[in-house]
Design brief:
The protein is α+β, with helices and mostly antiparallel strands. The chain has helices spanning about 5-10, 35-60, 70-75, 150-160, 170; strands at about 15-20, 80-90, 100-105, 110-120, 125-140, 145. About 30% of the residues lie in helices and about 30% in strands. A hairpin with a 4-residue loop joins strand 4 and strand 5.
């Protein structure tokens, strides 16, 4: 996937989080600390959840399936928990840089789904990491007992997966590397 251009990268994901790298994100070897990739994936995962909730609202404007976004996002009722996460580091990144972290859902099962995260460096114009996270649904009001995906979630994920972020290309194309960080 590292041979993509920006447009193809954005076409491949329905959700993208723009994450500016900070000086303090580097390790002693002057590149992005490995743990920061997981934080960047977290930002993209939360953006995916927010986009999914927007899709659910557009599909069910009267909320006939009783999907409660507030309890979903605040872990007070039915909601997500990260069961497993991985990251494959493909290219070293150093400050200054901005990463675009794309998220896409795969493997929908009764009580879980997998989010694939791909990080694109604007400075290096390439994929710098690929990771995944298995998201399990639980009922926090019942001591975190595992439960099935809400039917509205399944519809929201399906609708979201049909979209892509190619509309963001113009925001980054034609800008020199130094202009991106001013």
């Amino acid at each position: 996937m590292s041979r993509l251009n920006l447009k193809k990268f954005l076409e491949s994901v329905p959700v993208v989080a723009k994450v500016p790298m900070r000086w303090g994100d580097m390790d002693a070897f002057q590149h992005l600390n490995n743990c920061e990739y997981f934080r960047f994936q977290e930002a993209a995962r939360l953006k995916y959840f927010e986009a999914m909730c927007i899709e659910i609202k557009s599909i069910y404007p009267t909320n006939e399936l009783n999907f409660d976004e507030a309890t979903f996002m605040n872990a007070t009722g039915f909601g997500p928990i990260l069961a497993n996460t991985t990251c494959r580091f493909k290219f070293p990144v150093s400050f200054p840089d901005v990463l675009l972290v794309g998220s896409s859902a795969t493997k929908l099962e009764a009580d879980r789904f997998t989010l694939i995260h791909t990080a694109w460096s604007l400075k290096h114009e390439r994929v710098v990491s690929e990771g995944s996270g298995i998201v399990v649904t639980v009922d926090y009001s019942k001591e975190g007992k595992k439960c099935n995906l809400h039917p509205a979630m399944i519809k929201g994920i399906d609708a979201l997966q049909k979209k892509h972020c190619v509309g963001l290309v113009g925001e980054f194309e034609g800008i020199t590397a130094t202009q991106r960080f001013e």
